[in-house]
Amino acid sequence: MSKHYIVVSSDCHAGLHCEQYRPYLDPSVMDEFDQYVAERHNHRRMQMEMNADYIEQWEKENELGLTGAWDPVQRDKELDHDGVAGEVVFADADAVTGQESPPFGAGLAAGRITDPRLAYAGARAHNRWLAEFCAANPVRRAGIALVPVTHDVQRAVEEVQWAAQQPGIRGVMIPTMWHTNKPYNDRSYDPFWAACAESGMVVHTHSGEADFANYNDNLGVYVHEVPFFTHRPMFHLLLSGAFERFPKLKFVVTEAGAYWASDLLWKSDINFGGGHTMKKMAAKIKGTLSKLPSEYFGVNCFIGASTMSKEELRRRYSIGIDCTMWGTDYPHPEGTWPHTRDRLKKDFAHLPVDDTALLLGENAIRCYNMDRDALQAIADRVGPTPEELGQDPNYFSDPAEVKAGRWWIAEYDCHM
Amino acid sequence: MSKHYIVVSSDCHAGLHCEQYRPYLDPSVMDEFDQYVAERHNHRRMQMEMNADYIEQWEKENELGLTGAWDPVQRDKELDHDGVAGEVVFADADAVTGQESPPFGAGLAAGRITDPRLAYAGARAHNRWLAEFCAANPVRRAGIALVPVTHDVQRAVEEVQWAAQQPGIRGVMIPTMWHTNKPYNDRSYDPFWAACAESGMVVHTHSGEADFANYNDNLGVYVHEVPFFTHRPMFHLLLSGAFERFPKLKFVVTEAGAYWASDLLWKSDINFGGGHTMKKMAAKIKGTLSKLPSEYFGVNCFIGASTMSKEELRRRYSIGIDCTMWGTDYPHPEGTWPHTRDRLKKDFAHLPVDDTALLLGENAIRCYNMDRDALQAIADRVGPTPEELGQDPNYFSDPAEVKAGRWWIAEYDCHM
């Protein structure tokens, strides 16, 4: 009998209904909180006016399952049903009408908060709740605390140190956009990266915010640009040598796809290690990094690729078979829940079993330092087998093919 | 005997030494001009301090050829030598020490000028000179005038109307970055797009500026991001329906590579025409465009791909065989001059002859509405033949293969 795959969803969401955050909130911001709750209700009304049929159908069909957003017992049932052993838990569980959002929008669009006091108050409220939530089953959870580092680096360091003490919290999410604060390549953030590296807290950006001020509410432009702005911080760190200064630092870009890595790693490796196209610049760039940019992937840089496209699976060796992590996006409607098993059968049937194991769980276990044995015990009960996915259990990857995925290294003779 | 390819370089540069712009400049800005010239000399001194060996060797080896930056007779000799019949002519001929830059930096980094008066004065000086320069041989030149539209839309309209009257001026370049001015998806620019569409002036962004304020002088981050910021304006127009409102408008992104089109067109086509991944958003996005985003390429959107990489040539059908234009980047050292013939042999030997004709010249002739017969007469004298490039003159493209390049249209059943 084949072993069951340990599936770790690299992209899930949990959170209270906005009003329920009240007991977790610092009393000094209650007036602003009442305003925020009213604004959230108004937001739902507007969504219902535009899209009532779709919203009502989604919420009715998934009524019980959606309570897993805040109920850890129901949540584990949903994970079991989907074949998922462990999960990475971000904020903002309600992607349809935005009701389960941390106070003041401190979740996926945290950069939009302009008042540092509210930014930290909202983050703290969610983090206090998240710590309780993850403590109910810390083996299955890698909770991601909210840390609005752009507003206050020292306070961010303290939040990281607190988060690292909480069972089941394994990372932090920073604002995607730094706005008028310092860019993430700035050395003033170094105490924060140091604290994350030392405590093993994995740093994240997650799709949500982008350069809204320049979109005139044009959703097409937003959707077009959001991947760039989401992966931008990781490249600012990488290309300014942050992973040289903090070799244990890990950074994950979540739900922004993975396809962009193919070209950005090609281009980055050439720029830093394939000098002949860049005569003028090579001299100035060299010295920042000790390895090719692509060589930091799978060590420091990871991609929470969520529900990967077939093209991303085909490109898995150029994106990186050791850095890419599949995810369900539960309980968001654009994800695979509650039909994850069907989707896995559809997309993974023709993949080698070792690649499948890495993409579905092993990369995440390594990235988040999760308890593999405890997860395997859960997977033995709920996880899919190669046979269930329609795979040939004797089909393994060809090392030459894996190496050829990063075709540019040979074609440009890239080296440092 | 095979016909000679008409090579039109989609990316060349010309300009006076900065001091020589004086007679073309409005007298009201002479004080600022003296400061600018002094700053340019200082810039050269700094470059020499860092990189003297390289600069001296480059300038010595190419002394005569570099005078083609401003001497149209020498320039034609350089084009002949390289096998190039026609060319698209941008500002900023000296990419090594920045001496041949329009006043106040009105060329490739025009967005950095904060004073609208200087922005237009610098642009006007270069445009007056460029009109003379192109008039010396308008068949071979597609001169690109400078138009800092972000500062003043009405004045930009007037500049477009003037430029359209000049023999050999066939387009305008706008600032890559709009900074605190309106983004290019804003309807306030519509009179400018209308003027360009009506007069046949092709709009350009050209690699140069990026989000400098956020780089801390980190060249690695700059090089990483400059393609995004260069193609960003074209997508703001495309995705906000500008090519629906102005069907004759053409936009070219120059010297920012072409590779990014593969993934951005895949993603854009899905977002607008492959609804099933985007249930929540599809309803809001649809209606802006009447065609898939990729279908505007080759009609409204073109890519001045400069010295294409082998990978970009391999991907020519996904990038778009009807929208991609090769270029030498003469007289910049990162280009192919004075070894263009060797580079063409190296890169095009195994390509079909019809694809080669499109990439090397026919797409540019169509985009810029150049005089094909007159260019063919020049090409018959200087242009490479398929045999010279080592090609099989009977090797033509396979229509099924061309269609398969945009693989996502079938895989996602994309349609509007």
Question: Any overview of this molecule?
Answer:
2 copies of one chain form a homodimer. Chain A is α/β, with parallel strands linked by helices. Chain A has one domain: Metal-dependent hydrolases (TIM Barrel), CATH 3.20.20.140. Chain A is 46% helix and 10% strand. Chain A is built from 17 helices and 8 strands. Chain A has an 8-stranded parallel β-sheet, with helices on both faces. In chain A, helix 5 packs parallel to helix 6. The mean pLDDT of chain A is 95. The interface between A and B is large, with 53 and 53 residues.
SSE topology sketch:
Two copies of one chain form a homodimer.
Chain A (H helix, E strand, L loop, with lengths): L7 E6 L16 H32 L1 H4 L5 H11 L3 E5 L25 H20 L5 E6 L6 H11 L5 E5 L16 H10 L2 E5 L12 H21 L2 H4 L5 E4 L5 H14 L5 H7 L15 E6 L3 H5 L1 H4 L4 E3 L13 H9 L4 H16 L3 H11 L16 H7 L1 H5 L5
Parallel strand pairs in A: 1-2, 2-3, 3-4, 4-5, 5-6, 6-7, 7-8
Features:
TIM Barrel, 17 helices, eight-stranded parallel β-sheet, homodimer, 416 residues, alpha/beta
In short:
Chain A has 416 residues and is α/β, with parallel strands linked by helices.
Tally the helices of chain A: what do you get?
A: 17
Indicate the proportion of strand residues of chain A. Answer: 5-15%
Identify the overall geometry of chain A.
globular
Task: Give the strand order, joined by hyphens, for the main sheet of chain A.
Answer: 1-2-3-4-5-6-7-8
> Can you tell me the number of structural domains of chain A?
1
Overall CATH class of chain A: Alpha Beta
Cα distance, first to last residue of chain A? Answer: 46 Å
Unreliable stretches covering 5 or more consecutive residues of chain A: none
* Oligomeric description of these chains: homodimer
Number of strands of chain A: 8
Question: What letter string, H or E per element, gives the SSE order of chain A?
Answer: EHHHEHEHEHEHHEHHEHHEHHHHH
Profile the largest sheet of chain A. Answer: 8 strands, parallel
Q: Biggest interface, which chains?
A: A-B, 53 and 53 residues
Mean pLDDT of chain A: 95
Q: What is the alpha-carbon Rg of chain A in Å?
A: 21 Å
Q: State the CATH topology of chain A.
A: TIM Barrel
